[in-house]
């Protein structure tokens, strides 16, 4: 900004217009006192000052302005119409002026001088800004160096206090600092400790050093006193500043005892694994023998039991028709024999669940219809209502999935409230995840099959108990059963899902009941 100072407004106006036409900001003052007040509050690049003014003349104003630190870069041009002698011009320069022009002023000359002095002012301001920035940067660098020195001292103190070997390496790979534990394995602070002949830890790190990645490996170091090679875990971490590695910090942790313990444990695990494999073979053989035994025993028990039932029926029909009491006892015997037969069949089925079987495509709709045909009489007698939606074709073991649905439908028909006809619903829906509570999704990878009924149900606290073989929640007199049905259903379904082929184009199945 330019400041024009003249006690006559008619002198100020033309100069102001000329300067403003050349895009200068111009401020004015009509006295020396007003000019000084403005200099205190505003910075000016050039002051054009009239020498002859009432009150303070131009020389006095220039001397006062020169005393202001804020105006030390401001250039002053004197204008005078009377004082043209050399002594006045000299006084103008000695009082702080940069130039002395006599009136009438040539506008072009004045404009040229103003432009030159204004450019000089701007350059001075830029130079001061650069100087200030350099001073700030110097101060920042000085503080950074002091902080770095403090941090290095803290790092060294920390490394000295560690219970393991610790060291620092320059960005070029030269050892910079080591703690006292270092000298248990190396007599020289500038040389890496000697390793086992088969270990190449230091060479490997030097090859990886240019990548700037943390290096970790196991290494065997030769202890100076005992000459024993002990296992250590080497870890060297880069320290970066502005993306450049300035040093590496490394530690060597003694893991010798842990390594020996791990090797001993591996030997024990290997030995135990061999023992388990042998035991597993024996267990498989024993399990096979038990399955054979259960099948033989069940088969051998069924034959005499069948004869007992036949003979009981013959005695009842041929010899005891008139004796109602004997008929009642005999019917109880026949009922017990039938229950024993069912129990043998269930035990035989349960024992066969561990035998492997092949998967094949199974139409659940056909399977369910066959089961309903088997239950036709009890469905009719209990006036049961069944709602069965379209079910998918899935890869499974037909005989075993049949057992699942057979036991679930049987229980739904059996465990009903008095005077309340059974209602059974069976449906299937695609879901997103392998969870019974998963959301329905038309593109899901799993299929949820739901079997619902309006039976008597059970208390949830017995949820785990009902799947245990021979466990019953109801007495035998109220509801028939052997206590094996749900155990068969659970074991069957567990075997099926564990063996289910893992193919991308197949749908996995969950059952909820």
Q: How would you describe this protein?
A:
This protein has helices at residues 9-21, 32-41, 58-66, 86-94, 107-161, 201-208, 256-318, 324-351, 364-374, 376-381, 398-414, 485-499, and strands at residues 2-5, 26-29, 46-50, 75-80, 99-102, 165-170, 175-178, 215-222, 229-241, 244-254, 360-363, 385-388, 393-396, 423-431, 446-453, 508-512. It is α/β, with parallel strands linked by helices and 513 residues long. A five-stranded parallel beta sheet has the order 2-1-3-4-5, sandwiched between helices. The chain has a five-stranded antiparallel beta sheet with strand order 7-6-10-9-8, sandwiched between helices. The longest helix has 63 residues, at 256-318. It is elongated, with a radius of gyration of 52 Å.
Write the layout of secondary structure elements.
Elements: E1 2-5, H1 9-21, E2 26-29, H2 32-41, E3 46-50, H3 58-66, E4 75-80, H4 86-94, E5 99-102, H5 107-161, E6 165-170, E7 175-178, H6 201-208, E8 215-222, E9 229-241, E10 244-254, H7 256-318, H8 324-351, E11 360-363, H9 364-374, H10 376-381, E12 385-388, E13 393-396, H11 398-414, E14 423-431, E15 446-453, H12 485-499, E16 508-512
Parallel strand pairs: 1-2, 1-3, 3-4, 4-5, 12-14, 15-16
Antiparallel strand pairs: 6-7, 6-10, 8-9, 9-10, 11-13, 14-15
Helix pairs in contact: 2-3, 7-8, 11-12
